Amino acid sequence: MSALLNLALTFGMLSLLAVGGGTAVLPEMQTVLAQQFDIDHTAFVHIYSIGQLAPGPNMMMVLVFGFQVAGMLGAAVVLLSFFLPSSILCLWVGRLWDRIGERPWRRSVQNALEPISIGLMCSGVYAVAKAAVIGPLTLSMAAVTLVVILFTRVNPVFMILGAGVAGAALMHFFGFK
Amino acid sequence: MSATPEDSSGEPNLSVSAPSATLWQLFYEFLLIGAVSFGGGIVAYERILLIEKRKWLTVDEFMATLAISQTMPGLNSVNLAVLAGNHVRGTMGAIAASCGLLIPGMVFVLVAGVAYSAGEDHPLVNILLSGVAAGATGLLAAITFKIGDNHFRHFKSLVIIVATFFLMSFLKLSLVWVLVIMGPISLFLYRPQPQQKPFEQDSSS
Description:
- The complex is a heterodimer.
- Chain A is an all-alpha fold.
- Chain A has seven helices and no strands.
- Chain A has a domain at 2-103.
- Chain A has helices at residues 2-17, 26-37, 41-53, 62-100, 104-132, 136-151, 156-174.
- The model of chain A has no long low-confidence stretch (mean pLDDT 91).
- Chain B has two domains: 23-117, no CATH class; 120-189, no CATH class.
- Chain B has helices spanning 23-36, 42-53, 59-71, 76-119, 123-153, 155-170, 175-189.
- In chain B, helix 1 packs across helix 4 (76-119), helix 2 crosses helix 4 (76-119) and helix 3 (59-71) packs across helix 4 (76-119).
- At the A-B interface, helix 1, helix 2, helix 3, helix 4 and helix 5 of A face helix 1, helix 3, helix 4, helix 5 and helix 6 of B.
C-alpha cells in the first residue's frame, strides 16, 4: 500500500515537473527509482530502451517501473499519476486561455522554459549514456546512431533495433563489450 | 493536488465554430496515431490529422494549441491530444483523444515490460538490450541536438542550458530545486520586451 502511494506521489510530481516534455524528467526519474525503488541504472536504461521501441509516446515505459515495483496495480497507479495531473492542468489552462486570449508573457514563459528543458535533456543524455555506454562497442554504436539520425531520414526505430541486433551479435560471438 | 477544473461540466466552451466529430472518431483517429508513430515525431502526425485530414483545427488554432502544449508540463503530444479533443468535444473529447493516443503504446510496453521482468537475468535479453540502449542513447542525443540547435548558438540560451545541466548532473540537485533556481532567472532573461524585439533572428538584410 505504501509502495503504491509512493509510486503515485513520485510520478505525480514528475508529471507536473515535466517542463518541455518527458525527457526533461529522465535524470530525476533515474535517481529517484534507484534511491527509493531499488531499480538500478542498468534496468532503468533497459526499460527506457524498450520505451523507444514502442509506438506512441515513448515515456509510456514508466508503466514498466510501476509493474516492477507493484505488479499490474503498480502499472495502473503510475499510468494515472504520470498522465493525469499534467493533462488536467493542461486542459484547465487551455480553457482559461480560450477565454483570456494570447498574452505576451505566455511567449516569455515558453521562451524561458525552452533552454531549461534543453539543459535537462542534456542531463538526460548524460544519465542514460552513463548507464548505456559500457565500453568501446556501445560507445561506437551510440555515435553511429547519433550521426545517422542527424543526417538521414531513417526511422530511428530501425536504427535502435539494428543496434540491438548488431550489438548482440558482436557481443555474443566475439565477446566485445 | 494542485489544479482541478472547477467548471469541467456544463461549461459551453466550444462556442466558436466547434468542428463536428463523434467521440468514437476522435478516439479512433488518435488510436491510429498511437499505433503507427514508431520512433517519435508524434506531434507531426497530430498536425496532419488535425489540420489536413480531419480539419478539426485551423493552422492558427493548431499553432496556439501547440504553444500551450509546449508551455505546460507533461508530454507535448499528450497535451496536444487533450486540448484538441477538448476543442472538438469538450472533456469527453479530451479523454477520448488522449486514451486513443496512449492505449497502443500502453499495450506494447506492458507486454514487453512483463517479458523483460521475467527474463531480466537472461544473458541474451541483456546483451540485446545493451545494444538497443546504446542506440537509444544516440537517438536521445540526436533529438536533444535537433531541438536545441538554435539555442546552442545563442549566448543567453546557452548559459541557461549549461547552468541547468551543471545543477542537475554535477551538483545533483533535485529537479524541483533546479526549476526553482533556473525558472526565475530564465523568466527574467526572457521577460516580455516593451518594444517588440524580434526573437534574436538575423537583423541584417
